[in-house]
Amino acid sequence: MLTKDTIPFSVSFTVDKKFCYRANYPILSHYLVLFLCFEIYVVSETQAAPDYDLEPVQYSDAQDHNTITRIQTAIDGGESKLPQGKPREVLKSLLNELDVSVSSQVLVFSKTSLQRKIITPSNPRAIYFNDDFYVGYVPGGMIEIIACDDPTGMMFYSYDVNALPEKRRFFRDQECMTCHASSNTMNIPGLLVRSVFTNQDGQPLLSWGSFLTTPASPVEQRWGGWYVSGNKAEVKHMGNQWADHPVAGTDAYQQLHNQHLVHLNSFFDTRKHLTDSSDILALMLMEHQIEVHNTLSAAKMRYLRSVYLDRAIHGVEASPSIERLVSECTQSVLKALMFADEVKLPEDGVEGSDAYRESFMAQAHRYDGHSLRDLRLEKRMFKYRCSYMIYSKSFQQLPEEIKTPVLRKLYAIVTNQEVPADLPLLSSREKERIHDILSHTHPAYQAVMIR
To answer: Is the pLDDT of residue 37 over 60?
Structure first.
């Protein structure tokens, strides 16, 4: 009889192609080798599913719970409603509902999004944003919303303002994942900003190359396919222009026309939008926020997935690999919050419009006249290198196993208990101000201090 005592026996299995466990029994007689391998696979469709669609996150199938779903529930129950008039009225009402300032408007004319068929330099797509929401609108098209206050992750919605009033509602949109869940978004449902060369219709000239814009991107490589206004300083960038004759090559962009504009009405009829600007400061802060939102969401989903798989193998007690993961996630979050990769600003700095600056500063959590929103705009964006995004819903919804180490390490850094590796070296004054602000305005930071 063949038993485990008389033949070698090896059993292995995989869980979602991530872990392998093998039990081996000794070889005893006649060099008989028998290898039995059992592999546990799900159906082929699931094998190809990205990690964020597997247990325990299951992003695509997860029930969404956020401000947009609450607005829709209130509309369905007759407790609230959006205007049923012109699209601009609906858009403005929605921005008010989400506490998003009209002055945050930025405009993109490259055909690089879902509504690319109707996007042109004369009909650009507007994006409005605050710490927790991004709202897009193309005149003649739909309103698009990204809600970053959902416990699962960033949720994408569309709202067809051109439909009959009774058929207007927020629909969760999975089509966006084609571009918004890739290596450009840290492999989770997230956000990205691209800088591209375009022709006069806004069509990207991809053979010329393109740039993924992050806080580390040189300003000279930013905003191709975007309008840029509100800056009087000598800042060179790729915005406000396109190639009239693509055969001329990238030399057409080297001339850098239209760099310093206050208004954009010379390019298109700005009355179709809520304001006539695409503010340079708003663009740069949006790029910072996107980096933070992606980092926070990636840390959360990566942690939850890894813990799920670790427990499938090791039980409740976390393995050393989870401890290393927590350390990696903590460092990545701190790097984003502390502007570790921020590019040095142009010599003349940046300015931006008074309207946007005032609306941005109005959201500040202040102590003794100071806040993490205090702008510097010379050499770097902020006076204090700890992001205001530490107050965002996305940060609040981090797993405690990630959020608490982030706050503990930040506390150790600003109280001179730890010298950070791969993070900016803060001045004594910076550390003192960051600590004073957070210790009086951030409950989770206060809790770490007490411990």
So the answer is: no
